[in-house]
Amino acid sequence: MEGITLPKSIRLILTSHSSVLLLLLIMVETTLAADTVLGPSSAYLCFDESRWGKSIRGIGDCDKAIADNELLSKRDLAATYSNRGIIYSANGIYDLAIRDHSRAIEIRPLLGQAIVNRGNVYFRMGEYEEAVANYDQALQISGSANATTYLNRGLALLEMKSFEQAKASFEQARALNPSSRQIVELPEGVEAP
């Protein structure tokens, strides 16, 4: 899944029902590609490059794999489009990133990771309503409900000033991953900045 480019950590202060403040630390992690493509192929090299943030080198490998699409399964072809979309997005080429994630979704409509990745591109573009729509779509797909998607959704809602919905999304993230270091309870008396 593609990460959202934010400062190394963002502190979001929320008030819970028990008046305990929650500090949500969002650490930008290495991006995760849509699927793993195995073997020493252009598709694998594309996948490998998609994990390295700003690397543009992998686009040629992605292009080659897509051009040789008869050698790829539908699963791997969709993953390769989404992986190339990750690379485009990391380099600020958002229109091509949206195009590639959308193509991946056309090939495999239930590919939740590509839907989340497309939502992350919209987030980077400041189109938060589109981002939330994509996160919601991904969350409706069986097996796609994960803490990161809820965190990203919460961040987009926060940007939209939908504080209660953002809080609910963050709480859902915590429920899915209670041991996460991304959400830390602070003692009472800690003031919001």
Strand content: 5-15%
Secondary structure tally, helices: 8
Secondary-structure element pattern, one letter each: EEHHHHHHHHE
* Chain oligomer state: single chain
What is the number of strand segments? Answer: 3
Low-pLDDT stretches are: 3-32, 184-193
- Please give the share of residues in helix: 40-55%
Backbone structural class: mainly alpha
End-to-end separation: 31 Å
Sheet with most strands: 3 strands, antiparallel
Question: What does the overall shape look like?
Answer: elongated
pLDDT averaged over residues: 76
What's the alpha carbon Rg, rounded to whole Å? Answer: 17 Å
Q: In which order are the strands of the major sheet placed? A: 1-2-3
Could you explain how this protein is built, in words?
The protein is 54% helix and 7% strand. The protein is built from 8 helices and 3 strands; from the N terminus they run E-E-H-H-H-H-H-H-H-H-E. The protein is mainly alpha-helical and 193 residues long. Helix 3 runs parallel beside helix 5 and helix 5 packs antiparallel against helix 6. A hairpin with a 5-residue loop joins strand 1 and strand 2. The chain has a 3-stranded antiparallel beta sheet with strand order 1-2-3, with helices on one face.
